[in-house]
Amino acid sequence: MDEKLKKGLSLAIVTLLILNIPLILYLLNFKLVAFNKNFYKKEFLKYKIYDDFPGDDIEVINSDLLYYMRHGKGDEYVNIDLFNDKEKGHLVDVKKIIQTAFVLLNVSIIFSILLIGALFWTDKIGFRKKISWTLIYGGIFTFFIALVMFILIKINFNSFFDGFHKTFFKDGTWLFDEGSDIIRLYTSQFFYDTTLSIVIRTLAIAFIFITIGLFSIYRLKRDVKKREHYDCL
């Protein structure tokens, strides 16, 4: 392969990998947090949700809703009597977004694996170095996005939350009275904790990526110095 073409192709692959890292990390952490039943139990206890629904089995309702979010089909409503038709209509929209996000996560992971394979095929000798820098820059990029989100959430979560809904949902479909069961069950404090947990997890993993990348670069430089030392003997 022509050297100039090789460098250009490698640069394009590394760039795509760097851009893909925050997407994968956010979607993966969303999946891990949003479908962690223990997380919901802690939140329900924290905000005394069990006391607000003394006649209902909240854990069964939540488990059924999570199953619906992952496996519900098309425009079918969730079969939970607690919610009214408007709430069920909103949950249909939420389900579609979540399922689309999971498809995007899987596609992004497969795409990244293919890109890594292409990078190895393109530059076997420089593969380790390029992957190391990909982790560093991808981690920095992800860390910066997560840090901005963390600040926005801490400053004014309501504006952040409203902005998200205005972007992904039709006007009026996501607004409910404070006494609505969907609002009482999944409070604004719950969504605050959920979003913050996702962002903090992403910050932590981004930092790990940066650390692994830097350590790998250090090892590479040390190996080069060793080879140079033995070559001089």
Following the backbone from N to C, one meets helices and strands in this order, namely HHHHHHHH
Largest sheet: none
Q: Low-confidence parts lasting 5 or more residues at pLDDT below 50?
A: none
As a percent range, the share of helical residues equals over 70%
CA gyration radius, whole angstroms:
23 Å
Q: How many helix segments? A: 8
* Cα separation of the termini: 35 Å
Mean pLDDT: 92
- How many DSSP E strands? 0
Rough shape? elongated
β-sheet strand percentage: under 5%
Helix and strand composition category: mainly alpha
Describe it.
With 233 residues, this protein is mostly helical. The chain has one domain (3-232). Helices cover 82% and strands 0% of the residues. The protein contains eight helices and no strands. The longest helix is centred in the last third of the chain and has 45 residues, at 188-232. The model has no long low-confidence stretch (mean pLDDT 92).
Give the arrangement of secondary structure elements.
Elements: H1 3-34, H2 37-46, H3 49-52, H4 58-71, H5 85-122, H6 127-168, H7 181-185, H8 188-232
